Amino acid sequence: MAAIAMILKRSPYGDINAAEAVRHALGAVSFEMGVDLILADGGVLLAKKGQDDRGTGFTNLESTLKDCLDMGVSVYADTASLKAQRVAPNDLVEHVKTVGSKEIAGLLKEAKATMIF
User: Fold this and answer.
1) Is the Cβ–Cβ distance between 54 and 82 less than 8 Å?
2) Which of 109, 15, 19, 35 lies closest to 76 in space, CA to CA?
3) Which of these, 42, 58, 60, 78, is most buried using a 10 Å CB contact count?
4) What is the pLDDT of residues 81-109, one digit of tens each?
């Protein structure tokens, strides 16, 4: 059971929400908290391999997401959102799990706290 479920609904290159989500996830896991990072809607684009951030003015977050995974953050991508964003499961960063709405509901139910970005 995760202590914190973090939901990212916005794409990684349009505002600071994705950067804040991964920063908070890294901070929580560094304090040995369990973290589930749930990517939905445009947030699933954070997990796409080979992100092209040229011209966005934002820092590429792919390596930061990999750091989250390496430190023990569980990262989940919503299957319906992947389909809507035209991202295939094999286009995701390694170790990102694809889940449906039932699984996401279960993660949220079990979390002690929830943050939405």
Assistant:
1) no
2) 35
3) 78
4) 999 999 999 999 999 999 999 999 999 99
